[in-house]
Amino acid sequence: MYEIVKKQELGDSINQIEIYAPLVARKALAGQFVILRIHEEGERIPVTIADFDRAEGTITCVFQVVGRTTKELATFKEGECLKDFVGPLGVPSHIEKYGRVACVGGGVGVAPVHPIARALKEAGNEVISIIGARNKDLIFWEDRMRAASSELRVTTDDGSYVRKGFVTDLLKELIEEKGIDLCLAIGPLPMMRAVCDLTKKYGIKTIVSINTLMVDGTGMCGCCRVTVGGETKFACVDGPEFDGHQVDFAEMARRSVIYKKQEKISLDMYEEKGPKSHQCRCGGAE
Ligand code: FES
Asked: Model-level pTM?
């Protein structure tokens, strides 16, 4: 059983949980993810590792409530347990000294950017992080990102915090102000696509971390397939990071909504019936 040792609400429907999983924490590296199941009847969902503490044996994950599973997960309290917590999965981020690196995080994508920015800074890079969200209530981990970076720039779509604009506006300014050697972008699909469209014009290598539908997470089911440079890749074992200029974002966008109807039915059923009892989902008596 994987106990939630700490839980914190970070903002509007965004939650941070620390899970006791010492074997996962021992091996975890920046850029990797886990697949978790909240209880026996739960679906398997991939969640990117936002932080890890090898001494404490914990993994930190940040998630936003978007569907049935995340809605139920948000009801879990400290001391409750997840049924499965498998990882670390995926290829770790390639960390080396590039020079000046822009780490761009949009929305909940700020969380997975965090360990990568920190590792890049530790490798001697000048890391300029750009984080953005729709509004002030969705900005989180400003302090952590500032510590993990050489410099942090913040923006909100509606201008309710720091400044008004998209992460791409800040990225364009940064590129024209001092130039960058590499860009890493994690966030909603349209954001990553917009970042790649921008950096392509300047010829700047750009890495994106993609969050596709997943089932097994070990390259068996094909659920996470994505076309990169005209070839089929599996996000779970070949990624989750890819050269953003090679990713077929249009296909990804189409595939990301194929179960929308079923997801809505599942959420409606959950809202009608309510969560299982806490004891039951921890494996105890109902
Ligand atoms: Fe099944 Fe990647 S999740 S192949």
From this structure: 0.91
